[in-house]
Amino acid sequence: MKKSHIFAALALCCALHCEAADEPTPPNIVALDTNKIEYLPYDAGRMKFIASSEQTNGRYTVMELVEMPGYKTGWHRHPDADESFYVLEGTLTIKLVDKVYQLPAGSYVLIPRQTPHGQGNFTSSPVRLICTFTPGGFDHFFRDRIELDKTVKRSDPQFAKRFDELRAKHRNHVEILGEWSP
């Protein structure tokens, strides 16, 4: 995907979310070359923090995720945040309430807060996407996932227990509702 498309996607995501925020403190300006941000490994693949909740005064979070084949989230919802995805490469499968979408590169989806959903990569290639949360804060969950991945891999029998503890710690950002299938 062309670099101009990536920056256009970031601008779209940020514009949609910044307008929706009702907090009086404006976000800090975030202008950067995302090619200079290093990928960090986590249990689903790797990621970059593009705009953290600290950088935006809590108004939004923007991350680039690369989810590996076979990765799938639990069925969940975000109690107090809207989430969006812009697919840069590959195909993201997402189930929203009771409908499944196959989202190829160039696709965008906005998931309003409280909407049950799950996403995954059911292809043989990685899927790369921009993920935005409004308001911000969910980046703290991902920072903890990066730390967890340093000590326990997804294939380790202890991973499920430790990951459940991590989700409980961040229950104000994500509520697990169970499992799902496409």
Explained architecture:
With 182 residues, this protein is of the alpha+beta class. It is built from three helices and eleven strands, in the order H-E-E-E-E-E-E-E-E-E-E-H-H-E. The strands form three sheets. It has a six-stranded antiparallel β-sheet, sandwiched between helices. Helix 2 (139-151) packs antiparallel against helix 3 (159-169).
Q: Layout of SSEs?
A:
Blueprint: H1 3-20, E1 40-42, E2 45-51, E3 61-67, E4 75-77, E5 82-89, E6 91-96, E7 99-104, E8 108-111, E9 117-120, E10 127-134, H2 139-151, H3 159-169, E11 175-178
Antiparallel strand pairs: 1-2, 2-3, 3-10, 4-11, 5-8, 5-10, 6-7, 6-9
Helix pairs in contact: 2-3
Shape, per Cα inertia axes: globular
Report strand %: 25-35%
Largest sheet: spatial strand order: 1-2-3-10-5-8
Largest sheet report: 6 strands, antiparallel
Q: How far apart lie the N and C ends?
A: 27 Å
* Rg (C-alpha, Å): 15 Å
pLDDT averaged residue by residue? 88
Defining key terms:
alpha+beta; globular; single chain; six-stranded antiparallel β-sheet; 182 residues; three-stranded antiparallel β-sheet; 11 strands
Quick rundown:
The chain is an alpha+beta fold and 182 residues long. The protein has helices spanning 3-20, 139-151, 159-169; strands at residues 40-42, 45-51, 61-67, 75-77, 82-89, 91-96, 99-104, 108-111, 117-120, 127-134, 175-178. It is built from three helices and eleven strands; from the N terminus they run αββββββββββααβ.
